[in-house]
Structure formats: C-alpha cells, structure tokens
Amino acid sequence: MKLKISHTTKYGYEEPVADSVNEIRLSPRTNYRQACYHHTISVEPNASLFTYEDFFGNRIHAFTVNAQHRALVITAVSTVVTHNNDGVRNQVLSPKDDWRTLADEALQNKFAEFLLPTPYTSVGEDVRAYADEISLPGAGVYDLVMETGGKVYRNFQYQPNATVVTTRTDEFLRLKKGVCQDFAHLMIAVCRAKGIPARYVSGYHFIGDLQTRTVDFEQASHAWVEAYIPGTGWLGFDPTNNNRVDERYVKLGHGRDYFDIVPVKGIYRGTPLQNMSVEVDVQQL
C-alpha cells in the first residue's frame, strides 16, 4: 500500500511562553516491510531542526523556540509504501526448540531491555495472575503470543478517554477498558512474564480515508506490540484489533514502553495553563 500520513500537534497557551525545547518522534522507519519515500516536518513559530537516533534506532528531530509565543504547531507529513512481509515466518521451530532458544543466556542478554519490566509494564500480583491464566500446553512461542493478543482483545473494551497517558497495566486490569496504549502494555507485560522479548511500537493504522469519503470516526496514532519469535525474529501483533501487523500499519519506532517513544515531548518556561490537540489523517494513494 502507498499511504500518506499527516500528523499535526497544536499547543495553545493562555499567556506567552518562551524557551520551548522539544523532541519529535514522528519519522516513519524504513525497514523490510515499509519504505519512507517522503517526509517533512514544519514548526510554527519557525525553528531549526536537528536530528539524531536514540538507543533503539528511532529517528528524533529536536528544536528550540526561545522567543515568546502563544501557540506551537508541529506538522509531519510522510509518504510510505508498505508490504505484508510480517505475514511470513522464516523458519518454524519445534515448540521445544522455541523455548530452548529463549532460555539461552546470550539471547536474554541481547534483549534484556525487552524482557525486564518497566513502570508501564510492571508485573505485579494481578498481572502475574492474569499471565498464568494464558496457557497452551505444548505450544510454541508464536502460538502463545497469538493467544495472548487474542485474550487481551476479548477481555478488555476499547474506550477512548477511559484511561490517561500515565495509566499502568495494573490499573488497566482493574478498569477493564482503555486505549491501544493500554492493550499493548498489558500484552507486553504478559509476554515478558513468560520470558518472551516484547517491545512497544508506535505508528499508524490505516482504517479509512478522511479526505476522500464521509466517515464517522476520528483517526489517531496507534500502538501495538512486536514479539521475538525464534527462527524468524520480531513480528508485529495488534491486541487492540486482534490482528497480525500487515500492510495497513506504518511503524514510527519502538521502545520498552510508551515513555521511550512519546511522539512529541518537551519543556518550556511560562504558564502551566495550556491546551493540546492532535489531528491525524492516513490516506491511501
């Protein structure tokens, strides 16, 4: 699929602010399943951007606006061609070899960041009990990951505004409803509790075209999970929609949890009274 993504973040301040320092993680990756052919970022008030990669290889743009301003607008526009390469497993190992591979000390050291709990994906008593409910005797890693995503999808309700950006897995378990970030964090916590490396992915999911037809939904950025499958490598799973990741998904980046790949974050000097809005549109070209 050839997709055009427009992502605009607007901040408004009740009083003039200054010395705004920001990081943006809105650049689609180019990898084996997608290629970013065009990408622009604009900032109002105008600011110079410099770019670098973080520890996980995510592309970051940073900028500073020193002058006083009452509004800040960040717009990212990208054209990406995607392929359904995640649908193919390179080598299917036996369940015994699957788990033997994950038990290898060298692999555990290599993927330590994606095996250890984080504040968002902590494995407390409730999460541990939930993970223990997910069992497929004799199954390999891939089948268990699929079962985990399906169970999270079935057990929880997708409901915007039911949680906040700082909601942790134990809170989500109690609420039984939340957004894609919460679904991803819980699935990651369960995978890690079972010794399966898992990481949080930020990106977009094409579900329709706001520009070319009348629709009754609001598009937004999306989050899903990549789990390490022995014999193949990292594969994408979307517990919010109970899908395997395919050509409808565009990846921005990955990390241990949401905190590692916040799309836009920064600090400024001035009033704490502000409002923020985000507009996302994903079109098929």
TrEMBL record:
Cite a single Pfam family from the UniProt record. Transglut_core
Which residue range or ranges hold the Transglutaminase-like domain? Answer: 172-241
**Transmembrane ranges?**
none
Q: Which InterPro entries match?
A: Bac_transglu_N, Papain-like_cys_pep_sf, Transglutaminase-like
By its UniProt entry, which PANTHER family does this protein fall under? BLR5614 PROTEIN-RELATED (PTHR33490), SLL1049 PROTEIN (PTHR33490:SF6)
Name of the protein described by the UniProt record:
Transglutaminase family protein
Q: Which organism is it from?
A: Paenibacillus zeirhizosphaerae
